[in-house]
Amino acid sequence: MSEVDIPLLRKAVEWAEAEAARGDEGLWDQESWMTGSVGGMLEGNIYQEVTCGTSYCVAGWVCQAAGDKFVHNAEHHGMRDSGDTAYPFQSLAPNGNVQFIGNRAQQLLGIGEKDADMLFDDSNSIEDIRRFAESIAGEKL
After folding, report:
1. DSSP assignment, residue 96?
2. Spatial distance between the Cα atoms of 27 and 117, rounded to a whole number of angstroms
3. In what order do the strands lie in the sheet with 36-41?
4. Where in the chain are the domains?
């Protein structure tokens, strides 16, 4: 495992807290922000780019901060029309690699699977996000 990218982790927590402050009475809900609209097919590929509406989870933010796009496998999910609802489970990196969003964010942050599972869990409160991130970092963020 590589070294934890503490500056990226700190930025992700700050982003999540800012999003929670903007939302419904300061509540944080990663789970409800995962659907988006299907865009056009990416040239020469079976993947479609997917946008994530107003927000996305911590893992998604980390991927977007790295310049990734959200995609889904159009052939597998059978959604091809612009405006269809899709669940963007995959991230397309600038180098063309496609990975599941959680796996890509885990790699970018330099954290292990157990830490990623804790940090990206969709039942986390905003307080959980900070607590888990600080535990992973081994310091206050």
Report:
1. S
2. 21
3. 85-86, 36-41, 47-51, 69-73, 90-92, 98-100
4. 6-137
Share of the chain above pLDDT 90, in %: 34
* Cα–Cα–Cα angle for 66, 92, 78, rounded to 5 degrees: 145
CA distance 90 to 34: 11
Q: Please give the Cα distance from 134 to 53 (Å, whole number).
A: 28
Q: Name which of 24, 1, 117, 10 is nearest 62 in CA terms.
A: 10
DSSP 7-30: HHHHHHHHHHHHHHHHSGGG---S
pTM, two decimal places: 0.76
Percent composition of the chain: helix, strand, coil (DSSP 3-state, to 5): 45, 15, 40
Q: Which residues contact 51 (CB under 8 A, 6 or more apart)?
A: 36, 37, 39, 70
